[in-house]
Amino acid sequence: MPDYWRPCVLAASTGKSERLFNACNFSPELAAVPGIVSADASAKPDETGTGEAKAPNIPIFSIGKGVTPPRVVFQRDPEFSDLAREAKYQGTIIVMLIVDKTGQARNIRIVRPLGLGLDQKAVATISMWRFDPAKKNGEPVNVEIAVEVSFRLY
């Protein structure tokens, strides 16, 4: 499974991290597969809320309290997948990512998927985006942000 899907699938299959990934809805057909929908809704969310531990010794900030947000300096719109275009399927994907000190998107994770190949297109496109990094006290810092990617047919 691609890395960007792991938090969503982990949340759905274990019940962990539901507070962050409650939009990771699966079709009734997929939810019927044993193990996809958790029987243990009392499972505690993990420390990071992503289903994975963050890398140690690498501080990741949130915007606010002296941390300025990153600014996009290069952005390309994602293309539709052939399957989504044929189905006239559209919507918005939400991903979480870390903008590192160099302005690159890292650790891209799906929070609200669309399917039909659009998730892969969004992740591939976002990985090419470049940012003016977030800053704290004038120095670049790693920051975690949410990004919405909309797919609309006009």
Q: Would you mind describing this structure in some detail?
A:
The protein is of the alpha+beta class and 154 residues long. The protein has a domain at 60-106 and 116-151: TonB (TolA/TonB C-terminal domain, 2-Layer Sandwich). The chain has five helices and eight strands; from the N terminus they run αααββαββαββββ. It has helices at 6-14, 18-21, 28-31, 82-87, 118-126; strands at residues 67-68, 71-74, 91-99, 105-112, 130-132, 134-136, 139-141, 143-151. The strands form three sheets. The chain has a three-stranded antiparallel β-sheet, with no helix packed on it. A three-stranded antiparallel β-sheet has the order 4-3-8. Strands 2-5 form a two-stranded antiparallel ribbon. A hairpin with a 5-residue loop joins strand 3 and strand 4 (105-112). It is globular and about 50 Å long.
Task: List its salient traits.
3-stranded antiparallel β-sheet; about 150 residues; alpha+beta
Rough outline: globular
How many β-strand runs? 8
Number of helices: 5
Summarize model confidence as the mean pLDDT. Answer: 79
As a percent range, the share of strand residues is 25-35%
CATH class of the domain at 60-106 and 116-151: Alpha Beta
Secondary-structure element pattern, one letter each = HHHEEHEEHEEEE
Distance between the termini: 32 Å
Helix/strand class: alpha+beta
**CATH fold-level assignment of the domain at 60-106 and 116-151:** TolA/TonB C-terminal domain
Assembly of the depicted chains: single chain
